[in-house]
Amino acid sequence: MTSFLQQAFNGLVSGSFYALLALGLAVIFGMLRVVNFAHGAVYTLGAFGAVVLADKAGLGFWWALLIVPVVLAAGGMVVERAFVHRLTALDPLYNFLLTFGIALVAQDLLSMTYGSHSQPYDHAPFPGSVDLGLFDFPKYQVFALAVSLAVCTGVWLLLTRTRIGTVVRASTERPETTRAFGINTGRWITPVFGFGVALAGLAGVLATPMRAVNPAMGSDLIIVVFAVVVIGGLGSVFGSVLAGFAIGMLQALGNLYVPVLSQTSVFLLMAVVLLVRPAGLFGKEEHA
What is the arithmetic mean of pLDDT over 262-277? Predict the structure, then answer.
């Protein structure tokens, strides 16, 4: 029982990163109908941003947690205005290829600058472990899980309980009707894209004390995150977050009980979900 609970908690921590990344993807897709393949590269840039701030400016983790997501959000908005926006009227494949190219360029630039080896980070807060009753668990991982839950809950409340969230959801689901009420839906596109990018950058900073910081860390993760978004439902914030935590637990428990299937279980689950519900668990089917 102790092993089960410990692995389940490990899964929740891993799932917290899936949830943050999937949340950013879902927000961007919901508003722009753009599959942002550069999301994994932004996650990597978030981690490297924390490392660079520590090495070059002497700024620790808390400064990185504040600065890096804001800087990446600003960069994301520039990219949206300069490139993504110009391709939205074309086939979605064009923006997919654009963001895929951006991801490759970012990864190669990081490899050229820092090499392919992992970068050390010695500025993690909350050293030691906390007693959770049946087992001890690293304090920082508990903190990362708590931050992820708080951010996901905050975004859900923002989208469901505020006027801004109402406008964003209306612009996503019924753009023509929303414009008919005199609301300029276009003004929300760039900030929403930047917000989704900021969530990926935040996940990268949170991962820095726990993960090996190297140029390939995002590309290793993004395929699973795309599967998470598909399972939860493209554009569904609640579905993406719930699927993120569920997939994290599925992989962790798979490592314990069925190691041979632990890496493929998420894709098997995705195939089953798509057979039963092509739009995902919480997605809405589009009718012609």
Answer: 89
In one-letter notation, the amino acid at residue 234 is: L
Both tokens of residue 71? 């800087």
Q: What is the pLDDT of residue 286?
A: 57
The pair of structure tokens assigned to 83 is: 């490139």
Tell me the pLDDT band of 178, cut-offs 50, 70 and 90.
confident
Q: Report d(CA 180, CA 192) in Å as an integer.
A: 21
Task: Count the neighbouring beta carbons within 10 Å of the beta carbon of residue 38.
Answer: 26
Q: Is pLDDT at 7 greater than 70 in this prediction?
A: yes
Give the separation between CA 42 and CA 219, rounded to whole angstroms.
10
Which of 10, 2, 278 lies closest to 144, judged by CA? 10
Mean pLDDT in the chain? Answer: 89
What is the rounded CA–CA span in Å between residue 253 and residue 247? Answer: 10
Distances (CA, A) of 170 to 7, 37, 85, 94, 190: 40, 25, 20, 25, 16
Q: How many CB atoms lie within 10 A of CB 201?
A: 31
Do residues 243 and 254 make contact, with C-beta atoms less than 8 angstroms apart? no
**pLDDT computed for residue 92 by the predictor:** 87
d(CA 251, CA 254): 5
pLDDT score of 3: 82
Would you state the pLDDT for residue 285? 66
pTM metric for this prediction? 0.93
